[in-house]
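Budget justification aside, the reviewers requested a transparent look at the raw inputs and outputs of the sequence design task funded under Objective 1. We therefore reproduce one unedited record. The lines immediately below are the structure tokens for a 331-residue chain.
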């Protein structure tokens, strides 16, 4: 018994190419197959699925509602096929397991990162990733780690820097603190409050807050300089208003009511994270680049979800930027 169209990887490759090109002949050429066969394969795929994946009355073809629901999983399927082929080639060449040390900054969620490492181990068992806490760019440069996930964009000629995520920062305080001293509504109101701020090497001190495209300077009554984890604890204990905390670090406390968002959506400028690796390391380990690309995409997807859930949880009307650069304020 032959395989069905929906079990045929070529059919899904055609689906992906049609999403990109929107035209049978061009998509067929990209796969080096006959256009007539490609058309019949698409028809068979839709017959097996029981619904149309493209509206073929339009030029270029447009995904149907059902087709849109498939695209992410199709990309995952075809990415898995590519990774499996890469693994076959490495096994055929007799390559051994390679152990890579990944340094992560203090603010990273180790549980989430470890879950990604576990997931990638199923994709490429020949690459063993070891997570190491509190290491950064300098450790990449001196060879202590092979790559690092750091909270800034590194500019070094010898180092590849891959921008990964933009982190949503939120201003929070405990209900007890706000009941005692009142809730500030604007950055100017901080003149009556204690601010819990960060002052680490490579991390500019917060001197103002943003809301949409508006910026206002701040002059708190008093400032305590703390790292993020100590600032989180101090805020929960009612010591002041934390201005520099990423949403991912405060999400649990906001959900359980230990902290509440303040300042009506004014927040510290968003922070950029990146993956860094020396070029010579990439040349030495051929499959490390595949991991970096996969890891960066997974982290981007995770942070996008954090942004969206962050806006909703904080009850703020922040704009959310869509992939095409438009502003979506409907969520």
């Amino acid at each position: 018994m032959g395989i069905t169209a929906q079990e045929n990887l070529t059919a899904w490759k055609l689906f992906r190419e049609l999403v990109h090109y929107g035209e049978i002949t061009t998509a067929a050429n990209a796969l080096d197959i006959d256009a007539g066969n490609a058309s019949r394969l698409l028809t068979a795929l839709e017959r097996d699925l029981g619904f149309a994946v493209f509206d073929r009355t339009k030029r270029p073809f447009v995904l149907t509602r059902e087709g849109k629901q498939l695209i992410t999983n199709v990309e995952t399927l075809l990415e898995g096929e590519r990774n499996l082929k890469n693994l076959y080639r490495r096994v055929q060449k007799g390559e051994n397991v390679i152990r890579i040390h990944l340094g992560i900054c203090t603010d990273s969620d180790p549980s989430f990162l470890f879950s990604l490492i576990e997931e990638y181990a199923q994709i490429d068992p020949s690459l063993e990733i070891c997570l190491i806490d509190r290491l950064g760019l300098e450790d990449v440069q001196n060879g202590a780690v092979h790559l690092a996930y750091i909270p800034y964009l590194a500019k070094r000629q010898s180092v590849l820097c891959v921008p990964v995520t933009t982190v949503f920062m939120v201003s929070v305080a405990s209900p007890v603190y706000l009941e005692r001293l009142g809730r500030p509504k604007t950055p100017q109101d901080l003149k009556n409050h204690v601010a819990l701020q960060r002052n680490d090497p490579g991390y500019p001190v917060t001197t103002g807050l943003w809301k949409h495209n508006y910026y206002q300077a701040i002059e708190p009554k008093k400032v305590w300089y703390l790292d993020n984890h100590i600032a989180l604890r101090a805020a929960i204990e009612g010591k002041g208003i934390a201005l520099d905390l990423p949403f991912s670090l405060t999400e649990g406390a906001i959900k359980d009511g230990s902290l509440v968002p303040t300042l009506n959506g004014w927040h510290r400028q968003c922070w950029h994270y990146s993956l860094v690796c020396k070029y010579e390391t990439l040349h030495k380990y051929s499959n490390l680049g595949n991991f970096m690309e996969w890891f960066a995409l997974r982290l981007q997807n995770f942070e996008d979800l954090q942004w969206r859930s962050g806006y909703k949880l904080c009850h703020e009307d922040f704009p959310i930027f869509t992939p095409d650069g438009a502003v979506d304020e409907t969520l």
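The radius of gyration is 24 Å. The mean pLDDT is 83. Computational costs for records of this kind are itemized in the attached budget.
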